User: What shape does this take?
Amino acid sequence: MTNKDPNEKTKFAKFSNGIATFGRGIGAVVNALYDGGRKTIDMMIKNVIPFIAFIALIIGFILKTGVGHAIATGLAPLASNFGGLIILGLIVGIPVLSPVLGPGAVIAQVIGTIVGALIVAGKVPPQMALPAFFAIDVQVGCDFIPVGLALGEAQPKTVEVGVPAVLFSREITGVIAITIAYFASFGMFPGH
Amino acid sequence: MHALATGASYFIGLFQEGGKVFMSLSKGILPTVIVLMTAVYATIDLIGEEKVEIWAKKASRNIITRYTIMPILAMFFLTNPMAYTFGKFLPERYKPAFYDSAVSFCHPITGLFPHANPGELFVYLGIANGVQQLGLPIGGLALRYLLVGIVVIFIRGLVTEKITAFLTPRVLGEGYTLEALDAQGGE
Assistant: This one.
């Protein structure tokens, strides 16, 4: 009895430790999920839903007034074929234009939503969606280069050379991106 | 009076149309995005930032992983705009190329992982919503957007790295080398 007692205690201690570790694990997971939910809803209320309200207002106006027709006739020939998308990409990638078009990706999002409406209307074939993503987005982040570099702790001279480097690079890589996406879109929607 | 009434109903009609767009956008996509984002945020929380930093440092050493794995990790775990802070693991000469590569991934990733850039979802969703309304599946579209995005950020990294090297003596003065660029602020 005196020999057995300490042995049993350690066994019990191990068991209870196991339970405690398991409990902590469950607690951490539940906590992480709950935090994730809270973060998501915060993000929805602060960023996503306001943007939906903004874009719904713009698109509502565009659909209801004659503006939609004008934009559609201008954009449809650009968005419906490969050459047009390249032209669109070259325009939004122009080094003096791209930093102006960049902020908040608002322009890309509005053009994207209009292209989506053109796809529904049958004016742009659905497989053009993939190259269109890259054509409307050649200017991505061009407004943010100095800040983005500063976040990466870049030195002043690096920013000085980095800004033009990224801007000029886009005119080259924009065309490459649209071309790759165009060929990658083959067979995406068989029968369409 | 009749003209006024017509005018009023046209005025209201403008916003009713907007309301319909609002409902179709919120009803169609938001619920899935909310649940997905919750899961991803929880996963990121459980993995922890220290581990991700170790992976990113490893990825920074190789030219291929520097413009693929590293920006992907940055965008997935740190999200826009904190993703660009991973530039700190690189020498100065690669920073513009890394930024270009990482920022170009901030929309292709949103098709499958909207948590990475929730403020700018409509670059993807605007177009994808149109495709969906035709009754076509958008899973393939989201996947292809991600995969082509990875190829594109790799090419962008390479090209911008070359252009940075080309521009350094031309912008900062003859004889300014990449080594001088790297040595700024240090020592």
About this structure: Chain A touches chain B through 86 residues (CB under 8 Å). Chain A has a mean pLDDT of 85. The radius of gyration of chain A is 27 Å.
